[in-house]
Design a protein that fits this description.
mainly alpha; MetI-like fold; 13 helices
């Protein structure tokens, strides 16, 4: 009996076992939701139903609107994410060169980061119009500051002993920056992409809420205005799927660039 429990525990601890548990949890959740709606314990009008969401999903796929809206939002988010990450990371790394400049700039960085970027959306739309550019700028405003802070903090945690060693061997600041600071900062910077890509999606959707002719945010806003809750859920679930996909793309990139971190993660004591 104990051996059977142990084998069952081992099976559930595999990737397949964990995936089965996740899928089963989702199925049970939707089954309970649909059952409560069928018996009138929850309002179909205010909450929607899994069957209604599925029908709306199929209709959106058949007329290609779901693909168009998803592609539009994904393009805005990725473009703004790439630009914001490059700009923020570059500035954050370059602040290592001057401790004096870093100390002067840090309060402004904190102040900018404390401002909800959603509050900037009306100003950005006034400055850049209601087209694609405004949404990209909004995404950049949300991702650049996070990338800057992550990169700047990573440079502070670069190996000081190794920097001193290279300096004693005659290396200048440029060589230390290129050979020690940047390589040691990259794992933390890339790991931060997981968080930042989510902010990219938030920025794109917020921009579409305010003014847009396409996108998942536009789809959700219009559906909520018409009380089409099933369509709202389709848009929300698509955002979850897109976020899940982007997260795993970054996770695969991190595993490819820094394989030693995967080995370190596996060395966990089993209780």
């Amino acid at each position: 009996m104990r051996q059977e429990k142990h084998s069952m525990s081992q099976m559930l601890d595999t990737s397949l076992g964990k995936s089965l548990i996740q899928i089963l949890s989702v199925v049970i959740f939707f089954a309970i939701w649909q059952t409560l709606a069928e018996f009138g314990l929850i309002s179909e009008f205010l909450i929607g139903t899994p069957f209604g969401i599925w029908k709306r999903f199929i209709a959106s796929v058949m007329d290609y609107t779901l693909f168009i809206d998803t592609g539009y939002t994904l393009w805005e988010a990725l473009l703004g994410f790439v630009i914001g990450t490059l700009v923020g990371t570059s500035i954050g790394l370059l602040l290592w060169y001057s401790k004096w400049v870093s100390q002067i700039v840090e309060p402004f960085i904190v102040a900018i980061n404390s401002v909800p970027k959603i509050a900037l959306a009306p100003i950005i739309l006034l400055w850049f119009g209601t087209g694609l550019g405004a949404k990209v700028v909004l995404v950049v405003s949300m991702t650049a500051i996070i990338a800057l802070i992550a990169a700047h903090q990573a440079t502070k945690e670069a190996d000081k002993d190794l920097q001193s060693l290279l300096y004693s061997m005659g290396a200048d600041r440029k060589q230390i920056f290129r050979q020690v600071v940047v390589p040691s900062s990259m794992p933390a910077i890339v790991s931060n992409f997981r968080i930042n890509v989510g902010f990219g999606l938030v920025g794109a959707v917020v921009g579409e809420f305010i003014s847009s002719k396409a996108g998942l945010g536009h789809m959700i806003y219009n559906a909520s205005s018409l009380y089409e809750l099933n369509s709202v859920w389709v848009g929300l679930f698509m955002l979850m799927i897109v976020g899940f996909f982007l997260y795993h793309c970054i996770d695969s990139l991190e595993r490819f660039l820094f394989p030693w971190r995967n080995d370190a993660g596996r060395t966990q004591i089993r209780m």
